[in-house]
């Protein structure tokens, strides 16, 4: 038996656990949406009496939140699971469990193919994750789910989805499954001025690797042996900065003696005592945090498998999103990164397709936040009101993450997408007209079935004229269950590799030139790290992890992580900027920065 105490002072609470605390390490792979899902799992596990640790070798259970996006990402996930399983021979680890997109997408097939993994859990298992892990540790064989098309779990009409029950939506919280007291607290409608008391309950293709931080362009994936080595480095917390950035994320909970487990959780201590709750536990201590707007996608891009395992599009209620934004700000976050599979669709199932324009303005007014950034915009669904909201709303950075995927009209139709080079250039011109220095990034696919040399020429011409700040270039690969998998006109690997190299080189040159054009420009930088006389952060046009960063020089001694400062760009290194400190725009305003030192 153990006494579980959360927080301290007036906002603290405790309950008695009848089980000995068990350690668990969470390893997160993939995108920012997966980061949110991992923090939901962390909240559930911590509330269920598990103790989060950073070192996988010191964990009784290692939970790997996998990515199932494309072939290279799947290989990374498998190799990370294999590397984690090695700890069962050399460390204290008793079980390795797969969750996330790869686990959901393949279920029992993955379990059969990877016996080194003790269990494969799907999204439907998240609500009872603590009980599932304890059962697995006790030796119970988990029966993995049979993969299914999750689009069929919700009504076809978007308006009917808001009242649908019984469908697991990772990152949306859960008011039906609540652990004892308020361990999963953190959100309530009354945390914000406009929140209500009750809450209703990109796709790219190809390599799947994130753009290189120096070039803004995706690198060609390494061989399988290389990904196995990287997986081991991720688990050990070693490797280069980029690997550590997407490596093991977790927080150690203090255990003063075997009979008492104290969770030092100032973020949970600030939680409300009643009302609907969202399960979330921050794992990354930086001043930026992803915030999920919605899940799923209703589009039918021929190359993309994501809708089949993430399901139909479902928006979170505005009160829920706003409440979580308040909670994040109260716990050291300065920039919220709004994520979903398709942010431009937000609100369509709630009766207002322009709801995002209103919501971003409300989030920007949350005390403590300095930035709101929107990601995953569908070009075909962009509208003048959204461009205006993103370009001119104070606190909302003019950042446009537009996945064009290609520029040849006929090839885009074959992809089941809309637009062409001229329409996309018109969209970019509309953005630049309202925000000349706006950041615009995109992903493109080369080597799609039926692509001709003329199509590639059209793409290269478009990129040369677009003035994009970051470009992710992916080589096409077949994905199980997609329409494009059945297409004729497949290109051989050598042709795809040659086109990938051509477009990647062009993209590197173009994004580097775009960065150089910012020399002399005054930018606002969110400070994310300070190491001696070196400070680093991101300007407004630089999205987290994928768009490069800005090195700050000549800054004052009292500069702190989370500060927003102005600086003049004085140099570049690829897409990365070097900028001389100007002045502080806004500091943390005295909010406890408990999570900034994690």
UniProtKB/TrEMBL annotation:
Its main location: cytoplasm. It is found in: Cytoplasm. [4Fe-4S] cluster 2 binds at residues 297, 301, 304. It comes from the Bacteria. Its EC number is 2.8.4.4. [4Fe-4S] cluster 1 binds at residues 31, 67, 101. It catalyses: L-aspartate(89)-[ribosomal protein uS12]-hydrogen + (sulfur carrier)-SH + AH2 + 2 S-adenosyl-L-methionine = 3-methylsulfanyl-L-aspartate(89)-[ribosomal protein uS12]-hydrogen + (sulfur carrier)-H + 5'-deoxyadenosine + L-methionine + A + S-adenosyl-L-homocysteine + 2 H(+). Its cofactor is [4Fe-4S] cluster. Pfam families: Radical_SAM, TRAM_2, UPF0004. Residues 166-224 are annotated as: Disordered. InterPro entries: Elp3/MiaA/NifB-like_rSAM, Methylthiotransferase_CS, Methylthiotransferase_N, Methylthiotransferase_N_sf, NA-bd_OB-fold, Ribosomal_uS12_MeSTrfase_RimO, rSAM, rSAM_horseshoe. Residues 22-138 form the MTTase N-terminal domain. Binds 2 [4Fe-4S] clusters. One cluster is coordinated with 3 cysteines and an exchangeable S-adenosyl-L-methionine. Keywords: 4Fe-4S, Cytoplasm, Iron, Iron-sulfur, Metal-binding, S-adenosyl-L-methionine, Transferase. Belongs to the methylthiotransferase family. RimO subfamily. PANTHER family: RIBOSOMAL PROTEIN S12 METHYLTHIOTRANSFERASE RIMO, RIBOSOMAL PROTEIN US12 METHYLTHIOTRANSFERASE RIMO. Catalyzes the methylthiolation of an aspartic acid residue of ribosomal protein uS12. This is Ribosomal protein uS12 methylthiotransferase RimO. It comes from Kribbella koreensis. The lineage of its organism: Bacteria, Bacillati, Actinomycetota, Actinomycetes, Propionibacteriales.
């Amino acid at each position: 038996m153990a006494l579980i105490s959360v927080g301290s002072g007036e906002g603290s609470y405790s309950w008695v656990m009848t089980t000995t605390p068990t350690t668990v390490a969470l390893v997160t792979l993939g995108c920012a949406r997966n980061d949110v899902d991992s923090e939901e799992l962390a909240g559930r596990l911590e509330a269920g009496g598990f103790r989060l640790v950073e070192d996988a070798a010191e964990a009784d259970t290692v939970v790997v939140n996998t990515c199932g996006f494309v072939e290279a990402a799947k290989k990374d996930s498998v190799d990370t699971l294999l590397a984690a399983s090695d700890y069962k021979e050399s460390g204290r680890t008793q079980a390795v469990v797969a969750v996330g997109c790869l686990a959901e997408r393949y279920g029992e097939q993955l379990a059969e193919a990877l016996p080194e993994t003790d269990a494969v859990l799907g999204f439907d298992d998240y609500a009872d994750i603590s009980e599932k892990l304890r059962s697995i540790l006790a030796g119970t064989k988990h029966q993995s789910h049979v993969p299914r098309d999750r689009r069929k779990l919700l009504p076809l009409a978007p308006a009917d989805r808001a009242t649908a029950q019984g469908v697991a939506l990772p990152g949306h919280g859960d008011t039906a499954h609540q652990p004892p007291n308020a361990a999963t607290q953190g959100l309530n409608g009354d945390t914000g001025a406009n929140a209500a008391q009750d809450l209703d309950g990109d796709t790219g293709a190809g390599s799947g690797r994130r753009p290189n931080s120096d070039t803004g362009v995706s690198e060609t994936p390494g061989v399988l042996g290389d990904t196995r080595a990287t997986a081991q480095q991720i688990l050990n917390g070693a490797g280069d900065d980029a690997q550590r950035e997407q490596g093991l994320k977790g927080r150690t909970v203090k255990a003063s003696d075997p009979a008492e487990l104290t969770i030092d959780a100032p973020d949970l201590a600030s939680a409300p005592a009643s009302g609907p709750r969202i399960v979330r536990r921050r794992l990354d201590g930086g001043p930026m945090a992803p915030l999920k707007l919605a899940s799923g996608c209703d589009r039918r891009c021929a190359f993309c498998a994501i809708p089949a395992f993430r399901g139909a599009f479902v928006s979170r209620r505005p009160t829920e999103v706003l409440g979580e934004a308040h909670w994040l700000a109260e716990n050291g976050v300065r920039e919220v990164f709004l994520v979903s599979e398709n942010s431009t669709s937000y609100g369509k199932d709630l009766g207002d397709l322009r709801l995002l324009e209103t919501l971003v303005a409300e989030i920007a007014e949350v005390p403590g936040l300095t930035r709101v950034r929107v990601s995953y915009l569908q070009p075909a669904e962009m509208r003048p009101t959204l461009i205006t909201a993103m370009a001119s709303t104070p606190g909302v950075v003019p950042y446009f993450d537009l996945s064009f995927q290609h520029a040849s009209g006929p090839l885009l139709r074959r992809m089941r997408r809309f637009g062409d080079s001229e329409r996309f250039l018109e969209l970019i011109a509309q953005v630049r007209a309202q925000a000349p220095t706006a950041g615009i990034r995109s992903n493109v696919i080369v080597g799609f079935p039926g692509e001709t040399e003329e199509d590639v020429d059209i793409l290269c011409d478009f990129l040369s004229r677009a003035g994009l700040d970051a470009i992710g270039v992916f080589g096409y690969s077949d994905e199980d269950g997609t329409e494009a998998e059945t297409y004729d006109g497949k290109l051989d690997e050598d042709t795809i590799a040659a086109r990938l190299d051509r477009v990647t080189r062009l993209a590197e040159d173009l994004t580097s030139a775009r960065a150089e054009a910012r020399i002399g420009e005054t930018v606002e930088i969110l400070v994310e790290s300070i190491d001696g006389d070196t400070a680093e952060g991101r300007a407004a046009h630089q999205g987290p992890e994928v768009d490069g960063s800005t090195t700050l020089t000549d800054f004052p001694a009292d500069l702190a992580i989370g500060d927003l400062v102005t600086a003049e760009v004085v140099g570049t290194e690829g897409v990365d900027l070097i900028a001389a400190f100007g002045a502080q725009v806004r500091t943390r305003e005295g909010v406890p920065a408990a999570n900034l030192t994690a």
